[in-house]
Amino acid sequence: MVKVVVARTQASGRTMAVTTDDGKRYTLHSSPATFEHGEVARFGAIDREGLKPITRMTGPGLRTLSFTHTVASRDYQRSIEHVLTPLTRLARGGRRVRFVGGSAEYEQGVWWNIKALPVKVVQRALDNRISRAELSWELEEAVDVGVNLLRAKPAAPAVRPARPAATRQHQVVTGDTLYGIAAKYLGRGERWPEVFALNRATVRNPNRIFPGQMLKIPGA
Questions:
Q1: Count of domains for the chain
Q2: Are residues 120 and 211 in the same domain?
Q3: What phi and psi, each to the nearest 5 degrees, are found at residue 143?
Q4: Which element (helix H / strand E) includes 66?
Q5: Residue in 88, 86, 76, 74 with CA at minimum distance from that of residue 11
Q6: Which residue has the higher pLDDT, 151 or 160?
Q7: CA angle 203, 207, 210 (to 5 degrees)
Q8: Does residue 30 carry a pLDDT above 80?
Q9: Where is pLDDT greater, at 131 or 158?
Q10: More confident residue, 6 or 161
Q11: From CA 36, how far away is CA 42, in angstroms rounded?
């Protein structure tokens, strides 16, 4: 963290302003005399088999910036809420901001996200409105990153158990055999054991069926 003291008075005529990414501009009313700026690379430990891990830079760190500035009327008797309100609304709105009129290296170099902007009321005018206040900015570098939202993989549809094929019925006529019945209903005479298995309660001998018997036929 670097703390910078600016060696110039606020009466120099150069007052900082803040702009948004949609082109709106707001004056800060005064320029901060001090601010703190941080920009430290990220490091991570890399494991090595059989050896001690080593630390290497894994990427550039995000810049941070913090400062406090005063907004006040000249005689401290007039309201400055018309200056405070747009700034606090800007912080609530989550817009990216950039500063104009400050240090090109530190304050103006990048877009910032406002992490915090508390307001300390120092003095009030005769009508009890705010005439002097201190705003404390906490900012972090805004990085444009395309966010890939991982969508949950839809659950596979539940596999419903196959319904058993509906059985049919056949009334035995003279000359019928289980082989012939299987060929007629199931497409292959060799499937006659399936017909026999389904009718064991009434057919004792697969070679002997009688006219008038009702046989169950399995689904195809």
A1: 2
A2: no
A3: -115, 130
A4: strand 64-72
A5: 74
A6: 160
A7: 60
A8: yes
A9: 131
A10: 161
A11: 19
Report yes or no: 56 and 44 within 8 Å, Cβ to Cβ: yes
Q: What is the CA radius of gyration of the chain?
A: 43
- Assess whether 45 and 113 both reside in one domain: yes
Q: How far apart are CA 187 and CA 206, in angstroms?
A: 19
| pLDDT reported for residue 209 | 92
pLDDT digits (tens, 9 = 90+) for 117-154: 999 999 999 889 999 999 999 999 887 654 455 565 66
pTM over 0.85? The answer is no
Are 38 and 4 contacting, i.e. CB atoms less than 8 angstroms apart?
no
Q: Which of 96, 124, 141 is a domain's end point?
A: 141
Could you list the residue range(s) of the whole structural domain that residue 32 is in? 2-141
Same domain? For 20 and 124 the reply is: yes
How many angstroms separate the first and last alpha carbons of the chain?
Answer: 81
| H helices present in 130-191, as ranges | 178-186
Quote the tokens at residue 52.
Answer: 């001690």
Angle (nearest 5°) at CA 91 between 90 and 94: 90
